[in-house]
Amino acid sequence: MKLSVFVIKYLLSISITFMLFLVVQQTAQAQENGLGFIDEQIAEHKGLTGVLVLDKGEEALLARAWLADHAQESIEVQYFIWSSDNIGKLATEALLRAAERGVHVRVIVDDFLIDAPDKSLLALALHPNIQIRIYNPKHSVGTSLLKRISNVITDFRGVNQRMHDKTFIVDGKVAITGGRNMADEYFDYDHKYNFRDRDVLVIGKVVADVKQSFERFWESKLSASVEQRFAGIGIFGQRVTVDNVEIKEIYSDLHKYAHSPENFAPEVRHAISNIPAEFARLAKKTVWADVQFISDIPGKNKNRFALDGGGESSAALAALISSAERRVIIQSPYLVLSKEAEDLFRKTSKRGVKVLISTNSLASTDNLQAFSGYKKQRRKLLKMGLHIYEYKPHPAVQQKLLERYAEIESKQPVFAIHAKSMVIDSQILYIGTYNLDPRSENLNTEVGIIVKNEELARSVEKMIAVDMRPENSWLPTDNPDKHTTMAKRMKVLFWQMMPIKPLL
Length: 504
What we know:
Endonuclease, Chain A; 9-stranded mixed β-sheet; 2 domains; disordered N terminus
């Protein structure tokens, strides 16, 4: 049974989360610590924010699971992609159980990629402790075929404006943001394709700003409740309803599925059993510092027709780059510069600032359209003085970053960059959702944190530097495109001829 591409995979975290409940009940020490441990940390560091970089997929998964299991009052979640799979179903059930134990759960998901069964999505939304809102519903939820076509014709910018935010907030005390969506491949659980990604967990002061951003989207006119979307559908659509018996059956099926031993992969059982100890280990790495949370307003900017316009996150990151005196190091899965971005990096390079960028190669990328935009610019970017490193699909560092590499080594999964990070002069660090492309600059809403802390900045800088090593990346001058198939190269050539740059 499938549940929301989005509601369901929040559950990725949350599922493991509540499965974890059985283990944590037997772990007295974990019970004593709970969120009380976090309260103690906040009290000891008044006015500061605790920052923990989650560089490995399994760490990011365990942190979310532990936090969701220990939520006492509220869980607020905001994501762009929420895939459905085995873990997703378990996660959906965990979200339901969290609500059943009295936790108030609110979820905002972008409409673009939802493929959830309508009745299941509606059944979850009708739970008294669960609220689900759909951001900018012009494609999927409650939208008839005729209306979808009309939206594309009459509101092209609108259908292309998406919520790319990724935030996870527990009890208003702890939050996680960064590059990871809710899907197996972002947590190293896919057997064919996994992402080299990066999240950051924050505790304390800045969490209020993260929650304030969530509230802006929650109250925005662009966000509609699931109940509203299913109240009536126009021509070629069908009104969606679910009665009490159906709701009970959906809930019961989820609980049965979660309690069935064969539905737990061995690696998931292992992760669940180790969460209490793992989170304690991760917590010791927390650095307390002054932190700024940056975010866009719903809708990105005031433009309603043009595809440009920038945004608050774009302006904040441009200001950081302009402030650089020696070096800028960036990691982004996509590298497509608008005219404004080209001008910014050209001026930065002319000032003597060294700009290094880690991005995907054609062999590793998951987005051929975006790569086509980069390929059209590649020579120009190199002439501007940018130092570019293209990630290999099977980098040596993959063995170190994937906790479960030995289990999937024989399947040779592709490993691709999805992390969105920047380090300025080894002193200032940005981690968030922002890709180095026109879509993040002008269309999609983005979030992230800026930390002025040399210890954290140098730590992430070293991580990116490792990804740039010869065993992990190719130089553009070495013709890395040759390492993939002719068919893939021809597809990129096709997209290079399309006038799609503002949408990349």
